[in-house]
Amino acid sequence: MVLLATPHARFHWTFLAAVDEFRANGEPAHDGVLNWPAEGDFPGLVFTREGLEDSAEFDRFVANRVGDAEVGNPRPPGWTTATYWWLEDPDRVDEFVGSISLRHHIDHPMLATVGGHVGYSVRPRARRRGFASDALRQVVPLAAARGIPRLLVTCDLDNVASARTIEANGGELEGELGGKRRYWITTGA
Predict the structure, then answer these.
(1) Of the four listed, 22, 103, 172, 180, which is most buried by Cβ atoms within 10 Å?
(2) What is the pTM of this model?
(3) Which CATH number, 3.40.50.170, 3.40.630.30, 3.20.20.140, 3.90.190.20, labels domain 3-186?
(4) Are 114 and 149 in contact (CB under 8 A)?
């Protein structure tokens, strides 16, 4: 069973190692490093892999991930609050193996169509161990506790592993839109 951990500085070096793995595997969009350009009144929020080597900058990054559950945390216009967890290998203390987020609302057009309530990624060397499926299983009742009755969870059309993960957690395929499979999971809220 994977552990859902609040983002924390104790994952500093294993998080950066995971970033390197995602990038070496041609998956920079899943590396978790934020790059939100300025938009409207939002001044932008940009972190870099190199900058995150500095412990103070990593602490600022962690504070943003944890604070994103709060309404006042800086985010682009229209983006919603979200709770982030970092996935910890239960056999290796402080070993970052991925992340999962629960978006509290999907009012934004991108989230309502292709983004969904939940986003997750597992670093390449930790895949095929059930971490994503177990993390999603743990997040469903947390969504119910927040009063979210149904979760929209999406995946790329060609991502068979992610489709299996969603289906194993009760995901019912609604259809395809914008290059994504759209699934709904009833939370029991």
Answers:
(1) 103
(2) 0.94
(3) 3.40.630.30
(4) no
